[in-house]
Amino acid sequence: MKHLSTKFYRRPTPEIARTLLGKVLVHHTVEGITAGRIVETEAYLFRDDPACHAARGRTRRNDAMFGPPGTAYVYLIYGMYYCFNVVTATEGEGEAVLIRALEPLQGLALMAARRGCDNERLLASGPGRLCQAMALHSGHNGVDLATEPLYLAEDSYLAGEIITATRIGISVGAELPLRFYLAGNRFVSRKGK
Q1: Is residue 153 in a domain?
Q2: Binning pLDDT at 50, 70 and 90, where does residue 155 land?
Q3: CA 84 to the chain's CA centroid
Q4: 30 to each of 39, 71, 72, 149, 160, how far by Cα in Å?
Q5: Is 23 within a domain?
Q6: Is residue 191 part of a domain?
Q7: Could you tell me the residue range of the domain that residue 148 belongs to?
Q8: How many Cβ atoms sit within 10 Å of the Cβ of residue 86?
Q9: Count: domains in the chain
Q10: 177 within a domain of the structure (yes/no)
């Protein structure tokens, strides 16, 4: 599979969130390779988006979000779950796409062992589960996603119909139509409103 170049991420964030659907997230570890097709994303914008971590400016926690497009922004929520984002737009702007769900493609037994779950649909459906299944954590914050061991790749898969909906699990900016997912895909974390 051909790795996505950094040029791919230098477009408007909602457009990138839509175009990431159908692409593949791959992680090479000493345990083995895991990979999954991206089936659900959410865009977070620097301007007019109070749910964006960058909305209040640059901090130690969100510093990677202001980095070069095509790098990872990984953060901890509720003190226990990691969320994996792809930095987008122009460096210094603070925009990203949250990868919400994957359709597991490779390393399913390894994902199941990491998750302690053998239900294929639940292996990477939701941001916390996705990070557990793919072994993503704070050590991946700021890494370049164009090279191994962690990268995004093209795939011959045709995405089909894309649903636009409101984002999940936020208290501000929840009305913005910035969540995107593949219609009819059983690995999507939640169908939209």
Answers
A1: yes
A2: confident
A3: 5
A4: 26, 22, 20, 10, 35
A5: yes
A6: no
A7: 6-182
A8: 27
A9: 1
A10: yes
Nearest CA-CA partner of 99 in 139, 52, 142, 152? 152
| Nearest residue to 136 via CA among 86, 187, 181 | 86
Q: What is the pLDDT of residues 8-63, one digit of tens each?
A: 998 999 999 999 999 999 999 999 999 999 999 999 999 888 888 888 889 888 99
List the Cα angle 95/128/148 in 5-degree steps: 65
Alpha-carbon distance of 23 to 105, in angstroms, equals: 11
Tell me what pLDDT residue 145 has.
97
Looking up residue 72, the CATH number of its domain turns out to be 3.10.300.10
Span 89-126, pLDDT tens digits: 999 999 999 999 999 999 999 999 999 999 999 999 99
Nearest Cα residue to 99 out of 48, 186, 37: 37
